[in-house]
Each structure stands twice: as C-alpha cells, then as structure tokens.
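Hi team,

Filling in the usual template for the complex we talked about on Friday. All components are listed, including any nucleic acid strands or ligand strings, so the model treats them as one assembly.

SUBMITTER: L.P.
PURPOSE: interface mapping
COMPONENTS: three
RESIDUES: 833
SEQUENCES:
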Amino acid sequence: MQSQAADKEVVVTGQAVGKTFSDGSVIALQDANFNIKRGSFVSLVGPSGCGKSTLLRLISGLITATSGEIAVHGTKVSGPRPDISMMFQKATLLEWRTALENVLLPTEIAGTPTRADKNRALDLLKLVGLEDFAFSFPAQLSGGMQQRVALARLLQTGADILLLDEPFGALDEFTREHLNMELMRIVEEVGATTIFVTHNIAEAIFLADQVVVMTSRPGRMAKIVDVDLERPRSLSLQTSVAFNKLVEEVRETLGEM
Amino acid sequence: MSAQKLPTSFWIFDFIFKVLPHLILFSLIIGLWEMAVSYGMITSIIIPRPSRIGSAIVKLYITEGTIYRHFFITLTESVVGFLIGASVAISLAVCSSLSENFKRYVIPYAVVLNVTPGIALTPVIIAWFGYGMGSKIALAAIISFFPIFVNTLTGLVQVDEDREELFQSLGATNYQVFSKFRVPAALPLMFAGLKIGLTTALIGAVVAEFAQATDGVGVLMSRFSFQLNMAASLATLLSMTLIGLLLFYTMEFLDDRIVFWRRENRRAAASRARARVWKKQLDNT
Amino acid sequence: MSIPDSTLNPEAVRHAERSMRSQRIKLHAGIFITLILLWEFGSRIGWLDPLFYPRPSNIMRSFWLIYVQNGNVWYHLYATMSLVFMGWIGGSILGVGLGALVGFNSLLRRFLKPYVIVLEATPRIAVAPLLIAALGFGAGSKIAIIMLVCFFAPFINTLSGVINVDEDRLELFRSMRASKMQVLRKLVFPDAIPIIMAGERLALTAALSGALVAEFIQRDEGIGSLILVYTRNLNMASAFSCIFTLTILGFLIFKGMEKIDHYVAFWKYENGRERVSAKRRAAMSQVGGIR
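RESULT (copied from the run log):
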C-alpha cells in the first residue's frame, strides 16, 4: 500500500490472512495482505459476502483468522485489545444508561473511571455535538444521535486504531453525510488510524486515503485505489471529475469479478 | 415545552370531568340494584341489597373496625410468602443463568412444580405447617415461585447478539457482562414475573385460609358466607380487593421506578436526576 | 455474526450431541433414583418423619391401590375433570364473547375500565365460599366457581387482542376497501388467535385450581376431596399419589394445549409453517394451479 506520508510508521499489518467457516466449506476471506500507516483512513468497500466485515472483525480480535497473521503495533492480534476500538452498524446503546454513561462504558469495563475519564466523556459528547443531551436516555434520542453517542464511545478509550463497520448505513442520507463530515473532522483532530467498512462506493472514496476494493466468492482484496484528493474534503468534491474517475475505477474493479 | 403551568382549576375540572361519568354510572347501577331487590325482582338471600352491604361495610370498617386485624394478617401472609418465593426463585434463576449444568438440573423439578396445581398442595401444607400463619405463608411462597423463576430466567438468558458483540469488543469479563448487561436487560421481564407472583401469593394465602384458619379475610369471608350473611361477606370481599389493589400498585410503583427507562415520563425525570448527580462529578457543565 | 465456527465434521458433531444428551438423561435419572433410594432408606431407618416424607414404596403402593385395586381415583378424576371442562368451556365462551364485545366498543370499554381493574385485583377464587353458600352444595356451585375463575384471562386477552391490531394493517385493509366483516374475519380474528390461545391456557389451569378449591370446601367428591380426606387421616402416601396424579394430569393438559396451539396458531411455529405450506401447495396443485 502506498501512503500519502511515506514517513509514517506502519501500525496494522496483515499477511496472507484467511478465514473460513463451517469447517472450510465457507471461505469468507482469502489471502488478504495489507500494511496500514499511522493516521491514514482506509475504506473497505464491496458487495455483501466480500469479507469486509469479516476482515474488520479479524483486525479487532473478535474472531481469529484460520490462516495468516494480523499484527497491530507490532504485536499479533489474538483478542480484543485496548489499542483498538470498534463501532458497529447498530448503535447498541444500553437503554438504562444516559448518553454520558454509555460513552463511559468502555472505561468502566477496563477499570474504575476517574474524574478525568468522566470529563473526557463529556468532552467527547461536546465533540459530536451532543452536549445538551449528555443526560438523556437512548429512547429520547434519534437514530443519528444514537450513532453519535456510539461514536463518542468509540473515542473514549483513546485507542488510536478505529474500526467502523458501516456505522451510518441505517441512517438517512442527510444525517449520513453530516456524520461523515464529522467523522473526518474528529479523526483528523485525534490523529487516529481508521478502517471504515461500507457498501457505498461514494462514501468509501469520499472519506478515505485508500480504498480497498473487495470482491466476493471467495472474499478477497481485489484492488487498492489511492485517493489523492486534498483534505479537508468538502461535499462539492463528489461532483468533481477526479472523484468520479475514482468511482468508475472502483466500479470497474467490482464489475470485473 | 411550554413554560407556563396550567392553573390548578384546570386540573380540578379535568379530574371531575373524567371521574363524573363513572360516578354517575356507578350510582345508577347501585340505585337500580337497590330497587330490584326491594321490589323482589332478585332474591335478597343470594344477592343482598346495596344498602345492607353498605351498612356491613360501615360496621366492619368503622363502627366495630373488626376487619383491620384480618386485613393485616392476610396482607402479611401474602407479602412474606411472596418475598420468600421471590428470593428463592430469583436466586435459582440467577444460578441457572450462570451455570448451564445447574440450569439443567433445576429445570425438570421447576417444570414439575409448575405443572402441578399448587392449590392441590393446600391440605398437605396445612398438615405440615399447622394452623397458624406458617401454612398460609408456605402456600403463598410455593405458588408464587414459578412465574418469578421462569420470567427471571428468561430475562437473564435472552440473546442479544449486538450487545454481546459490543461487550466482547470491549474485553469485558463474564462478571461485567452479567452485572452491566444481563441484569438490567432482565429487569423488565423479572418485574412482569414479580407482578404475577404477588397476585398468586395473595391467592395462596386466601385459599389456605379457607382450608383452615381462624384469622384473615379469607376466614372472615368464609364464615360470613356460611352464616348466610351475604352482605358482610361481600363487604369482606371488598377488603380483599383492597389488598389486591394495594399489592398491585406497589409493584407498579416499583416497576416504574426501577425499570424507569421504559416509560417516557419516567425517562425525563430520571434524566434530570442523573444530571444532578453527575454534574457534581464533572468540571465544566 | 452467527456463523458457526467449528472445525469438526458435522456428522460427528450431531452424533456427539445425541450421545451427550442420552448421557445427560441417564445422569438425571441416576440422580433421581439415588434420591428416591436415599429417601426410602432414610424412612425405614427412621430418620425421616413419615408425615413429611412418606416412604416412596408406600407412595407406589398407594398408586397401585387407588388406580388398580380399589380403583377409586378414576371416579374422582372423572368427577373433577368433567366439571373442569364444563366450567372452562363456559367461562371461555363468556370471556371471549364479552372480551370481543367490549373490545369493539370503545364507549363500553371506557365505562367498564374501573370495574375491570377492581375485578383484576380481586382474587376471584376467593368468591368460592360465597357462591357455595348462595347456590348450595353440589355441582352447580362448583361449575359457577370454575366459570368465574377462568372467565378473566380469556376476557382480558381477547380484549387486548381485539384492540391491539396493528395500525398499518388496518390501513392496508382500508386501502383495499374491505368491509367491516372482512376486516374482522381476515385480520382481527386471526391476529388475535395467539393471544386468545394464551388466555385459554391460563384459564384451563385456573379452572383446575378453582375445582380443587371448591372441592376443599365441599368435600364431597373429586380429587381435591380425596387429597383432603387422605391428609386428614394422615395417609400422606395416598395424598401424594393424588398430588402426583394431578402432576401427570397437569403435564398432559400442558402438552395437549401445546398441540392445539401448534394447530391453531400454526404460523408461530417453524414446523407448523412448513406443514401448512406443504398442505396448501398440495391443495393448489390438485386444483391444477402451481406445480
């Protein structure tokens, strides 16, 4: 993988990573190889069954690879770890906790939250624009707001590797666009390395420095497309020629397989 | 949200408007009933006059006040029996949810207990625990056990893949998953079971009183019935209703407070309460 | 992510599961039999008070007595269960009928609400002595008690089922310009079936309890009277036999109701869906429709 800033270190690596289910009869992912540099934003895009969610879960440590090896910060991934944080398609907030308490959940699980932790949670809610809803319950929040709480929760631990699995897929287009912008802003501010799974080609290109195009049957990494567009990205970019060239490139790759 | 409070007179009017039709209907029914019995359309032996019931109520509750002791005894029997049944049921449910083996060994016996009509045990319970409050409490406990057990267990083992995955991704220990996720998630079902259990505990206490007792509203009702004093019997039935209502609304209140996140108005109140507590722990709000 | 992650061959897994289950059953049975033997032993030595722990061998003997030798339990079972079923059916018809009536009439619902709340809070079984005193001893008052006891669950459930029809579905029917009768027959009634069935199960259980209470008071005939008489005579072994009889009966009722539910509310069950689906396909192909 070529990266923009060639001097940045590689934080996530994968060598010949594969995953099969049902004793080898289902090949979810085959021979994935990658090196991701610190601070880069990588999108995984492809149709359902291409293994993008599987790959994300392998990196997070939720499932283990049947072949190959994944390493984060030089150490092999064998289970969930504090330097990796994950966000899911469903906000999955606990309905009996306020937004603030939901954001604090990872810290609670890791140990006892300090005053500093609690203030950090509140600051994160401010960051996602939910300062006034810190003490509201999930049932009082809209879908988009719930996902924003989940986003704050993602950042609470201060992990520098962020994994997001189609986090805005269930939201309407306007909310999704808004949250995409927010995500980029936050990730830039925090300096995190982000891996983002989506089935939306435009979204994948818009957000990322690299787009990994994945195809299915069997799931594998077909091509890596570099996105050289300048940051910060603006929505108007999506109508530019350069952008649409990239969209075509990705579509072609998907169409070929 | 409008900042203006509606005047108290509005609320008074609102209340009257809601309650008045019911009062009118009730008075109508009582009135017709009274007339029907007076003019001999209904035999007064089986269905007493409302006025006779009224005087029985006055006698039992006000003039002689005999009912209070019995009321209290039956209430105690039900509540204590319920508490015992609930403690055992919840403990077993918790252990069953934590250990697959434990669950397998407990379940067959729980099923047998469920299928057997608990009421059938009444004579045996009385033979074992004697004529005092003990047998009533025991029957109440036994009958209230199963609904609480099965509801709590169902609540604790329900599968929620998304939450489970979330906790797994955070590296939570089994205890953390249990205390921070399974227990709160199980509360709604558990309370549903507790409500049923409380009702059945009252039934257990009353039935045990029928079979053998000297004190309690069940006994009183039974005695009045066989003296053919229907009016007093119905007046006593009223006290059973009161016990039932008391138990029900107590449980509703607890449910409302503890499982607060299910109801809109409770959410807002709880939200404010949390804000107050948390703001002390934060630096800049 | 519910994809199973297994490295075992599926045939072997199934075989292992089957043998694990039979092992478990053997273990359960083993523990149970051991408990029974300990009980018997403890009773013979004199550790266990026969009042509280009637000897298993005595219980088995009394089973033989009441079922085969004297055969007295059959009559009493019949006496109790015939009343239970009569009362159950009567109470159900009343309950479902009134529930539907009240459900369709919002004015009636509003006015009846306080009375329903009061009725719900009162333990209905408590009215037994009153009914017996008023209607006299005998089957009549027993049936009245049973009907009263098992009226409530079907009533509440039918009411709930009728009221809680999904708004979206009502809108669908309205968009097809369905008549009121059609909506009732094709939407409301089928939709309410599962919840009505649930109410009926509760009613049957309550009916049995109601019969027992009536028998405890009247002490003339029926399983409840039997239990009472045996206990009074401190014949705990026979009392327990009767109680276990009720356990078996309760189990049969449970299974029976489950079967009926599988048949009536078939769409809630996987195999029910498949069964009816196949049946309908077969019916269709006979008429020359789909193949």
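MY TAKE: The longest helix of chain B spans residues 174-211. Chain B has a mean pLDDT of 88.

Thanks, L.
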